Amino acid sequence: MTLGEKLRALRSTSGWTQPEFARKLGIEQSYLSKLENDKSIPSTEMFDKLCTAYEVTPDEILKDLDKDYIRKNLMHIPIIANTSNSKHEIAKGKRKAAVIVCSTFILVAVLFFFIASLELLSSNKQYEYSSPGVNYKTEINACIKSNEEKFCHMKYVGSYMPNMYPQQTRNNTSDTIIAKTYRGSTFNINLEVGSREYYLKKEITERSTANNIFLILAVFLMTLGVLGLIVEARFYSIDKNT
Predict the structure, then answer these.
(1) How far apart are the first and last CA of the chain?
(2) Quick one: 229 and 199 in the same domain?
């Protein structure tokens, strides 16, 4: 839409004839006709009169006008130039903020990816330790100091086998522990009665829950950032060509 078309629409909405409105403005009807037919461009003073007569703001007149038309024909009017420049700066600021936000998403995504890949906060390795049974050797030796050896074996093991393997138990109950950190090839845990010696059985490599979360967040933020930049570039191209 051109300024002339907008002026005709405003006059029609207001219910004024061209002669009536020309008298209201204090100008010749022929000049008003030229304005409404885009054969003349209003001066700054005339533009102000038009806004006052129609009781509209400059923005309300400009909002339906073609941007390229405004740029080519109306930028000599200070209020229009200032409004246009102000909107351009605001749009430019928003685009800059959007680019910064999207770039930040991408940088954080890369950071999360490296945290997960390098296992900086959580290791993907787990260690399976196994114990064949409870060791009562210490309890048996303490018991033998004041009791018969057979009695002490029967008390803790359930049978008298002096040369038995120290880890042999009454029921040979084995136990397994999955550790997130390496605790050596063997380690010992004292129980209320007896103790268990655990041996490293195997090393398990499986991505931890924490690292899975970091990878999911990395993919999500990377996608969000890239799509945001693509959309922003598209809007910038449209805005530049309009």
Answers:
(1) 13
(2) no
